[in-house]
Amino acid sequence: MPDIKLYTEHFNFYYGSFKALTDISMEIETHRVTALIGPSGCGKSTFLRSLNRMNDIILGTRVEGKVILDNRDIYDKSIDVVDLRRRVGMVFQKSNPFPKSIFDNVAYGLRINGERNKSIIAQRVEESLKDAALWEEVKDRLGASAMDLSGGQQQRLCIARALAVKPEVILMDEPASALDPIATQKIEELIFQLKKDYTIIIVTHNMQQAARVSDYTAFFYLGELIEFGETDQIFTNPKLKKTEDYVTGRFG
After folding, report:
1. Quick check: pTM over 0.85?
2. Which class would CATH give 4-247?
């Protein structure tokens, strides 16, 4: 039996009267990478942001159905949303380091969560930078501004910042789309390493990237989940013609 970390049941999402997601039921396995693919505007990022309630900050949104994390519905009124976002971290498409030092960027979440012990903070910053494959590049300039880092380094810093609070799930919204091929390769290698300890869900427009980094792939189209399965099966032997047309580049 697969170990399911997160699943959705008949999940619908609305921006005002517009229904952006329709009847999404899907299981996310622990310590696996699940890729969400599909053309622009098909609901991938909306679905991703639904998994840690980032969409709550948009006025006029509402949901139907369930998102279950470790047997609890994250939309239940009793859920602490701040704690949810600590457990389900997020890395955005555009790297968004704070205008602070490299050290303070990574320590930010720890301090927000009430950690005051300087040695614990220093240890977690080092561990997180190592986990994000950035430590060797920045260990001698932790006091320097994060804004001085290259684009690829900034994105790995944002991953380190997400890792510092020890999340269980990491959501990545096109984390390499703004990066050059070498920086992209580093992010992909990092994703492969991180799945040993984390459950990862990634939105990507890049078919080859989805095929390289993910264990499972979900194909979204016009707000619906068209097909979901093991990545090899989705790319080499899809069950539906619409999936085949998309992954072979006939549309999208």
Report:
1. yes
2. alpha beta
